[in-house]
Amino acid sequence: MTVAYQCALCGSDDAQPESLPVDWEEYLRDERDLSPPGIQWQVPLCGEHAAEYDHLRKSYLDRGMMDDETAQKVEGDADDLLDRLDLDRLVDEQ
Ligand SMILES: [Zn+2]
């Protein structure tokens, strides 16, 4: 039996866990009281939201090569996405 995860954005139950960049995890800890510490959190996402998340994560990690305005927009988009995650659906990496 495969473990089914629910998408942290829409609740769809065909989600697969995606890794969470360290900066994003810190944001969730600081802004949204993600706990407990010491866990390698992963974010389950459905196909549609995984594509959005992957795209944003890649942009976020590359933002050092962008001009300030674009980098700020990427950071704002990342914060928006993180604010929409249902933290009860996050899973810890096993
Ligand atoms: Zn979804």
Structure overview:
With 94 residues, the protein is of the alpha+beta class. The chain has one domain. Helix content is 46%, strand content 12%. Helix 1 packs across helix 3 (68-84) and helix 2 (47-61) runs antiparallel to helix 3 (68-84). The chain starts with 15 loop residues before the first strand and ends with a strand. The model has no long low-confidence stretch (mean pLDDT 94). Bound molecules: zinc ion. The site of zinc ion (ZN) has 8 residues, from helix 2.
Quick rundown:
By secondary structure, this protein is an alpha+beta fold. It has helices at residues 22-32, 47-61, 68-84, and strands spanning 16-19, 41-45, 91-92. It has a three-stranded antiparallel beta sheet.
Terminal Cα separation, in Å? 16 Å
| Shape descriptor | globular
By helix and strand content, what is the structural category? alpha+beta
- Major sheet: arrangement of strands: 1-2-3
**Overall tally of structural domains:** 1
Q: What's the tally of helices?
A: 3
Residue share in β-strands: 5-15%
* Uncertain residue ranges: none
Identify the bound ligands.
zinc ion
Tell me the total number of β-strands: 3
Percent of residues in helical segments? 40-55%
Rg, Cα atoms, Å: 13 Å
Average of per-residue pLDDT values: 94
What does the main sheet amount to? 3 strands, antiparallel
List the secondary-structure elements in sequence, H or E.
EHEHHE
